[in-house]
Amino acid sequence: MESEHTGSRRNRWTFLTNHARVLIAIARDPGIRLRDIAAGCDLTERTVQAIVTDLQADGYLTRIRDGRRNRYVIAPGARFRHPAEADHEIAGLLAYLAAPLAPPTVAPTPLGAVPPTTAADTAPTTPA
User: Fold this and answer.
1) Theoretical Cys-Cys bridge with 27: which of 38, 46, 94, 119, CB 3.0 to 4.6 Å?
2) How many CB atoms lie within 10 A of CB 28?
3) Nearest 5 degrees, angle CA 58-CA 32-CA 78?
4) What's the rounded Cα separation, in Å, for the pair 32 and 5?
5) Confidence (pTM)
6) Rounded CA separation 97/74 (Å)
7) Burial zone of 119 (CB within 10 Å; 0-12 exposed, 13-18 middle, 19+ buried)
8) CA–CA separation, 90 vs 97, rounded Å?
9) Which helix (H) or strand (E) holds 38?
10) Which residues contact 82 (CB under 8 A, 6 or more apart)?
11) What's the pLDDT tens digit per position in 90-116?
């Protein structure tokens, strides 16, 4: 994976911002170290520190000192900043992206394909 310092800018776009990635990392582990966030998000520690400061300043999280470590608490009810999404809470996105991936229970059906039928689907029904 390219770091924030390499590669052409045009080929590096992603759906999530660095702020979202940092917030997701904190949602997954509220006691995570900035160094570990930086490694996981492919950012510098200084960049992560600036992002955490932004998130704190805008009320998305609170930093609590726990001995020599920090713990973070994400603000319940915090909403997206952009006007297009301002009526939505970030909690839904964090719940979706911070949750561990569960294996699919049923193989997805390709678009336009007819799902396979089972014996129960083809069994004749009797009137009651």
Assistant:
1) 94
2) 15
3) 25
4) 24
5) 0.69
6) 14
7) exposed
8) 11
9) helix 34-41
10) none
11) 998 898 888 876 666 666 667 766 666
